[in-house]
Design goal:
By secondary structure, the protein is an alpha+beta fold. It has a domain at 79-198: 60s Ribosomal Protein L30, Chain: A. The chain contains five helices and four strands. Strands 1-4-2-3 form a four-stranded mixed β-sheet. Helix 4 (139-159) links the parallel strand 2 (126-132) and strand 3. It is elongated, with a radius of gyration of 50 Å.
């Protein structure tokens, strides 16, 4: 009887160990694909043509670069001088009453002139600097003052790198006024070193 109990206990233990391994394993479900069918009497659509060319319309505010054209100076030297003055390539230096020293504005005007005279475009020209005065003072005094003004402008251009051999000076004193008036505004316009392009 005792042996029977031992056998039954042993069998029960074996069953406990073996039973979990005997569980049926479920097969994994594989998805089934549904075949796509087309109606036998309808042909498939033709493939879309691929356009390899691209056509881009520029926007309304698109700016096309225009080719840079070399500036053509007038052949006539007088016309070239007027053109250079109108463009601001060369500028006159103005002086205070009874002075031949260059103030800041006069130095700026001559600096701009020197830069252009040293450029490829301006290097083909020489320069005549005319010294001018207003009507006050004697004729002789104003001729000497005009000479000092013309030479102060020349010396400044030379310090800026313009070759001195390209520059001549002349004094007109009060003889060739730019303004005919007899007031401060007119006199201020007549006190100058006037730059003139020459060959």
């Amino acid at each position: 009887m005792k042996n029977m109990r031992i056998i039954l206990a042993t069998v029960a233990m074996v069953l406990v160990v073996v039973m979990p391994g005997c569980k049926s394993r479920k097969k994994p479900i594989t998805p089934t694909t549904v075949p796509t069918t087309t109606a036998p009497d309808v042909p498939p659509p033709p493939p879309m043509p691929t356009d390899t060319s691209t056509s881009v319309t520029p926007p309304d505010d698109f700016v096309r670069e225009t080719p840079v054209q070399e500036e053509q100076f007038p052949n006539d030297i007088e016309a070239a001088d007027k053109y250079a003055h109108s463009k601001g390539y060369i500028r006159d230096a103005f002086y205070n009453y009874d002075e031949a020293t260059l103030d800041e504005a006069a130095q700026g005007a001559l600096s701009a002139s020197a830069n252009w005279l040293k450029s490829a475009q301006g290097s083909s020209f020489n320069l005549l600097i005319e010294g001018h005065c207003d009507e006050r003072g004697t004729e002789q005094y104003n001729l000497a003052l005009g000479d000092r003004r013309a030479n102060s402008a020349k010396d400044y251009l030379v310090t800026l790198g313009v070759d001195a051999s390209r520059i001549r000076t002349v004094s007109y004193g009060e003889e060739r006024p730019f303004e005919e008036g007899h007031d401060d505004s007119s006199w201020g316009q007549n006190r100058r070193a006037h730059l003139v392009l020459v060959r």
